[in-house]
Design goal:
about 0% strand; about 425 residues; single chain; mainly alpha; 21 helices
């Protein structure tokens, strides 16, 4: 039995990776268990192999950076007042301590991982169609409320996190089409369903990402074509996404509100949101960002502590009577500002260093890593990803995993 385990160890590891992906939208508990199974798997190895993996991890700058980032969160506990909330924050971030280590040093079965991603495409499409069927025909609700009532309330997952589990299958489909390894009509059908749900999320960040994805893929796919040909392709594809967005009620409503009600004077914005529950999300984010910047200035250079940033935000909302912020108890909705609020220049600079490291690894020929980093970067400017488990999973699992995967693919090609 032990001999068989070690013989198939790489395959078992890759299957465990698949379990993490497949349980992302199903169960918070099962997904958390699958994450800790990866840690258990890491230690189910020969003593010499474990020592070698730790040796590799110590030399891996990214793994060290994750460790330092978690350590900074612990340092922030030394001067926090709300210890209970700080402990809660640390418990959510525990995977940061070991997931990057595991996925950076364990060997991936490339062929099996590619197959798991192919299955993930079908799995995500089926899941979302079933969720939508339940929402419309069993819960008797309108399809344009799918995100609010089913994903947010019933599953407890923000559209910012769902976007990653949508984008990875989209990237897989694009990659298979580029390699001509798939049935084109089926690929286009599955891609269309995924694009429909991407638009149904009603997330402007996803629209910006999809536009950038199309722009980059157009440049790489038609690099030998004349410039006017590329421009026509870009206009047609972006126009198609724009038309789809126009037909999506949630996005259409957001854009309409932004165009009709947005003010550009901060004092006017504060006054407006102090007397009414205004739905202008752009103005809300302006208030959130300005409130965060105010907290950073007042608590420079080390921030307010790991457990106090939410309390400080609510104090600021109370002072300016930000009605929606108080009712919804908004967090920073910006991961960069969130880190500077919590642990000042220590956490803020460390979080920036992640992107400095990641950006050095970007490549236009990358099938996955470049695009998940791009989406995470865009999302981090408008969402506090590390506030919830799903966001921590994206940060500590998906990003380093696809970096390790693409490095291993590249090394395999060189050896062959």
């Amino acid at each position: 039995m032990v001999i068989k385990f070690f013989r198939h160890r790489n395959s078992i590891y890759t299957v465990l990776l698949g379990v993490v992906f497949y349980t992302f939208m199903i169960s918070f508990a099962v997904n958390a268990i699958s994450v800790f199974l990866l840690l258990l798997f890491f230690f189910c190895d020969k003593k010499s192999a474990i020592q070698q993996k730790f040796y590799k991890a110590k030399r891996n700058k990214l793994v060290v950076l994750y460790f330092v980032f978690f350590l900074i969160q612990c340092i922030g506990m030394l001067y926090t007042r709300n210890v209970e909330f700080g402990v809660q924050r640390l418990s959510v971030m525990v995977p940061i301590l070991f997931l990057p280590l595991v996925v950076s040093v364990e060997k991936i079965d490339i062929k099996l991982f590619d197959f798991l991603l192919k299955v993930l495409v079908i799995w995500v499409v089926i899941q979302l169609l079933v969720f939508l069927f339940i929402h419309i025909y069993i819960d008797q609700r309108q399809y344009n409320n799918f995100v609010l009532y089913y994903l947010n309330d019933r599953l407890g997952i923000s559209q910012f996190y769902i976007s990653f589990i949508l984008v990875i299958p989209i990237l897989k489909i694009i990659h298979d089409i580029e390699l001509k390894k798939t049935n084109l009509p089926i690929c286009l059908l599955l891609g269309s369903v995924l694009l429909f749900f991407a638009l149904l999320l009603g997330n402007i960040t996803i629209l910006v990402f999809l536009s950038l994805l199309i722009f980059i893929k157009t440049l790489t796919a038609f690099k030998g074509k004349p410039i006017y040909f590329k421009i026509v392709i870009l206009i047609l594809t972006c126009g198609l996404i724009g038309f789809g967005a126009f037909l999506t009620p949630k996005i259409n409503e957001k854009i309409s509100i932004l165009l009709k009600t947005t003010d550009f004077n901060y004092e006017i914005i504060k006054t407006k949101h102090s007397v009414t529950f205004a739905n202008n999300t752009l103005e809300q984010r302006v208030i959130l960002n300005m409130s965060s910047i105010e907290i950073i200035k007042e608590n420079f250079p080390f921030g307010v502590g790991t457990g106090d940033f939410k309390d400080k935000l609510l104090e600021t909302y109370t002072r300016i009577n930000f009605k929606t912020g108080l009712k919804q108890k908004f967090n920073n909705h910006n991961q960069f500002l969130s880190e500077f609020c919590k642990t000042g220049i220590l956490g803020g600079v460390c979080f920036l260093l992640f992107f400095l490291y990641f950006f050095k690894e970007l490549s236009l020929t990358s099938p996955y890593f470049t695009y998940v980093i791009l989406l995470f970067f865009l999302g981090s400017m408008v969402e506090s990803y590390l506030y919830r488990q799903h966001g921590v999973l994206i940060f500590s699992f998906i990003l380093p995993l696809f970096l390790a995967y693409e490095k291993q693919r590249s090394n395999n090609r060189i050896k062959n």
